[in-house]
Every structure is written in structure tokens, then in C-alpha cells.
Amino acid sequence: MSGNALGEPFASGREADVYALREGVVLRRYRNGEDATGEAAVMAYAAGLGYPVPRVFRADGPELEMERLDGPTMAAAYLNGELGPDAAASIMADLPGRLHALPGRDKVGSIVHLDLHPENVVLTERGPMVIDWRNAGDGDPDFDTALTALILAQVAIGSIEHEIGADAGAMLQRLLQLVSGDPLAKLDEVVAFRAGQWTMSAEEVAALPRAAALVRDLA
Ligand SMILES: Nc1ncnc2c1ncn2[C@@H]1O[C@H](COP(=O)(O)OP(=O)(O)O)[C@@H](O)[C@H]1O
Ligand SMILES: [Mg+2]
């Protein structure tokens, strides 16, 4: 489908544009043409086990047609005061907890999201729902939790610029008290993984040890 036929995207992230397609349905498309069928399979698996994820209608190459979610992202709701810090931390602890209760598809480990942070959670009437399953698959739950913690720490130290800023540190501290599993067990591996992600700038990579140190301090 050509960009022109779709009009302007109503939302854009770092990697994808999202278009309103028809009533209740959006089209998410990777700008770099990357394949979305793997994440669609994880989403369908998680949905089948009752996890709060938008329903997928079609996946074809970089295009993913899915249920449109109505509501602000957790980040937006936090910034406009709709969502308090304690509620934000308990949602950020609950969502990975429930995700990691889903057995991996090869029966080893669990389902992991690998980009679970407040920009990828939408607060809907049906409760918080998780989007942006690009990196999702089967894996180690502690790795996933450590990654969420590291991302919040990057925001808290100001390495990743986000309006939440230092409040991400308070959210992280509370989150670390609530999470199941061990958020430090895989932290070193997570730092290496994060350093290799193409979305990370050289400055962000250089600041990763400082972000990891904050996670350790707060845990
Ligand atoms: N199913 C959906 N319904 C409504 N809005 C969505 C949906 N999926 C994504 N969005 C919107 O698009 C934005 C970017 O989507 P996301 O999947 O996070 O892509 P990126 O990888 O670019 O961050 C989200 O912040 C959200 O506002
Ligand atoms: Mg996103």
C-alpha cells in the first residue's frame, strides 16, 4: 500500500508509522521495510493466552494490521497527571510479571518483549495494553526485566531525552521493589545487547555503564 493512499500517519515512533485504516483498525508499517510477521506471531500467541495485546488482523512484510487502541500511552498519561507514580510503577511491574508467566513457545523460558517501557503501553478502557512487539520472542524473563530497568535508568540519568526525566528514577526504584524475578541477574548481558541496538547513539552507548550502575544502586 502506498504512503499517499494512506494519508498522514496519526502516530510515528522511532521505527514505524501508524495509519488509521478503517474503523477500529490501524496499519503499522516499518519505515525501513523490515519484516513484521515474526512479531505478529508472538502477539497472536500472547493474545491467545489472555495477555493484553492488540488483535492482529494481517501481517505482510513490514505491514501489520491490528486493532486500534484508544487511550494515551503510559508516558503521556503520566506526564499529563492522569497516572500517578505509584500506579505507573505497579503497571510497569505487573505487565512483565504477567508476560513472563507465559511459557516460551519451545517450552523453554518465557515470552519476552525486549522493549517494555512506558511509551509502549497504551492505557485503554480494558486496561493497560502492550504494543511495539518488534523485539519480542522466547527468552529469559530476567533479561527482559533488566532491559526495562536499564531503559528507565537511561531516561533517569538524562542519557535518553524524555520529558519524564528524573521521575523515571523514582518509577524505577518502585518497580525494582515490585518485580518478580531477579532484575540484576542478566544486567551485564543486557548492557551489551542494548549497546548493539541500532537506535542507540554513540553517546547513549557510552552512558550505559552509568545507567546500569543506577539500576544496581536502586535494586
Ligand atoms: N494498535 C495501536 N492502536 C493505536 N495506536 C497505536 C497502535 N500501535 C501503535 N500505536 C501508536 O503508534 C505509536 C508508535 O507505535 P510503536 O509500535 O511503539 O512503534 P515504534 O517502534 O516506532 O516505537 C505509539 O506510540 C502509539 O501512539
Ligand atoms: Mg514504540
From TrEMBL:
Pfam families: APH. Residues 8-106, 110-149 form the Aminoglycoside phosphotransferase domain. It comes from the Bacteria. This is Phosphotransferase. It comes from Paractinoplanes pyxinae. The lineage of its organism: Bacteria, Bacillati, Actinomycetota, Actinomycetes, Micromonosporales.
